[in-house]
User: Fold this.
Amino acid sequence: MRTDPARAIAVLWGRAAGPRRGPRQAASVEEIVASAIGIADADGLDAVTMRAVGNELGRTAMSLYTYVVSRDVLIDLMYDSVHAELGEVRAGGDWRKAVARWSGKLRDLYLEHPWLLEIQSARPVLGPHEQQVLESLLRILASAELTFEDRQAATSALFSIVKGAARQAVDARAAITKADAEWWAAAGKALADAAPDFAERFPESTAVAAHQRRLGAQPWVTAADQAFTRAIELLIAGMDKLRD
Amino acid sequence: MRTDPARAIAVLWGRAAGPRRGPRQAASVEEIVASAIGIADADGLDAVTMRAVGNELGRTAMSLYTYVVSRDVLIDLMYDSVHAELGEVRAGGDWRKAVARWSGKLRDLYLEHPWLLEIQSARPVLGPHEQQVLESLLRILASAELTFEDRQAATSALFSIVKGAARQAVDARAAITKADAEWWAAAGKALADAAPDFAERFPESTAVAAHQRRLGAQPWVTAADQAFTRAIELLIAGMDKLRD
DNA sequence: ATAAACTCCTTACGTCGTATAGAAAAACGA
DNA sequence: TCGTTTTTCTATACGACGTAAGGAGTTTAT
Assistant:
């Protein structure tokens, strides 16, 4: 991110790449990005080391630097690349349903590539596929005849809600592991010891937790799903109400 | 996070600390956490290395491990500690205003300690001050007479929106630096070269950007502020509408 | 007095991104 | 055609990081 952006952007937006002088390149940026995405899908973003990606392609870490100027840029490319999977969400019909559809699809993308959530920064879009995702949403919001201000507010809110909900879902999914379950049990016990007055100090939190437990079955996972759907509904209702 | 949570939780919730045998400790957990927060405020979370914190206190990195079992736990402690600054947000009066007030205060906290945004995971609350922040919100939502389901949905949405907006604001603030301005100029130029058909491919994005530019002055910063306020308004309106 | 428990220091390991420098390979100018 | 230039890729190395291991010194319990 700190280096000259021109090359990264050129690669993102469909290269130029005139005839070069030296030896032919044995790999390609696409191949490297695909390999990196595979590693990230399997083992998370931290596992995407230059050495690991190089190894996967049968070459050294340093050779990758002739394709991408830094690991950060590689991650930018990965980020944009997976956004192609989302495709276009058309704006026809009821805009409320379209917003819900867009949100669900973006959340699915995050769940399929949880490492997307490990990337921080709300930096403006850099690549064409990210841009397409944003454009799709803006088209829907335009069809709802929101003001420009509300389009921005809604966009920001929707991205945030989807990301937050996806993170919750991913964490919930991970918490089902045996080791994590034990960890939580131990944490709960330690908490009960350390704060015996929890229920009096935090009655509302306790009430919500009790209600959650009452629903039984999959306490975290499905609760997160429902909270997501409902959160989107709340926002849509608000947009509807303040639309005039 | 991977180790026994009991000790971390004991420290978080106000210790026990019976009489120990060896030499007296020359520092305290509070001192270490405060020092780490100072470093993070100044230089971000990455600057909080065990060596840096130790150095600040005139001791070695390894000595810190008698106070906190790992860097991750230190960060948990930092996280909870700064949440004490937010204090209680009372639930009296109009719940709509209270929600807005709570959101604004949390956002201010994030802006004052931007490294909070570098911490990922939507893990359930661990410390008492985080818990208090959640409790305050739940009290407000209870006074609004939302269903339990809607309280969860609204909680999740509000945390997400606040966090997302804060991140945007922090990034906008950072983008005013000279070096970054140059970077963006270069990126813009590169983008114009790489995608001359941008405006046709992404008409809605272009329209929003044009509207933004038309407003002039501080294009990013105040726009982010307004989008935040409006996003919260949208959600509150939705809660209001679907309340029955 | 001796033993146990504890703090803190020094040293060291394995990891990372990437700087540097050189070898081999391809295209260019003559 | 033959250097010259440009580029790819490798090997090596540096300085960071979190933290494991081991040991010296200090305090308390027996």
Summary: Chain A has a mean pLDDT of 88. Chain A touches chain B through 78 residues (CB under 8 Å).
